[in-house]
Write a structure and sequence with these properties.
The protein is mostly helical and 78 residues long. The protein has 2 helices and no strands. The protein has one domain.
Length: 78
């Protein structure tokens, strides 16, 4: 699978799981609707941080694989 599809698929799965689980978690923790409203910005910021971390990890792996393949090609060429 091409690296860009791996990154996209990873982000898609993470986003879907986050949406399906984070609301349930907030409902479970919050005592009333006022508490739910207070958790929403924290939930959003957590999503942004974790998705940025995920994208960083996935793209780093993709670039490392690409770099290794290029180094192998150069080694074979020499």
């Amino acid at each position: 699978m091409p690296p860009f599809l791996r990154v996209t698929l990873g982000y898609l799965i993470f986003g879907a799981v986050w949406i399906l689980t984070s609301d349930r978690l907030v409902e479970w923790i919050a005592a009333d609707l006022g508490d739910v409203a207070q958790f929403q910005p924290l939930k959003g910021l957590t999503y942004v941080f974790l998705s940025a971390l995920l994208i960083c990890i996935l793209t780093r792996r993709a670039f490392e694989r690409e770099r290794a393949q290029q180094a192998e090609k150069v080694a074979v060429y020499r």
